[in-house]
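It is worth pausing here to work through a concrete case rather than discussing structure prediction in the abstract. The textbook approach is simple: state the sequence, then state the predicted structure, then interpret. We follow exactly that order.
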Amino acid sequence: MAQDGRLAFRAARTDQAQGARADLVARYGDCAPEAARAIVALGGDGFMLETLHATQALGLPVYGMNCGTIGFLMNGYDAEGLPERVAAGEETVINPLAMTAHRPDGTTAEALAINEVSLLRAGPQAARLRISVDGKVRMEELVCDGALLCTPAGSTAYNYSAHGPILPVGSDVLALTAVAAFRPRRWRGALLPKTARVRFDVIDPVKRPVMADADGRSVREVVAVEVRSEPAIRHRILFDPGHGLEERLISEQFV
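Step two, the predicted structure:
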């Protein structure tokens, strides 16, 4: 990416992120996102996801600096030489997941997820899910607290906490992971091609209600959820050289 001083700054609502933004704007100025060469996001991973969704239509690369707690998708914070670091950034392109959630009244809700789409029980009893892949039922009944489908970028987030695998960025694979599976016992999920279309049908949704979530955007009381990769949408993330997302995913497995 060629060096260009036209940077647009977005910051989380925390005092730390807002203070960092004020300092950086004083040093480098601020540009409207529509006229910028790149977006600089200040916060944690959650704010990076928010920024990617909010600026999706612009097609601009996003360079994140950690002013939060996790920062897996962020670079370390340093106010010095920011335009040069953004210009030298290594770009990773991520395709999000597209979720279509079906409600009992026949209406649907759609959302995109950069990390994962998850289904979670919304009551005291375990969820019962039927799982189909490309129109073929692969599991008649999964009794669980939930299940999720994640991208490689999201494989170290909720998926990893649920004991799912870490996926290389260029693997063109999605991870289907159960959350606290009760039946079948010890089922640890599946690896699916990126082109797979996955459908979750909720069995007995009145007695065992289920909610769906796509990167924090929730839909309650769903009866079915369809998920697929959306190759037409490309999120561009910049990382400092030698600290790209692929390297981070590999390093995470040797901690």
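Step three, interpretation. The chain has a mean pLDDT of 93. DSSP finds five helices and 17 strands in the chain.
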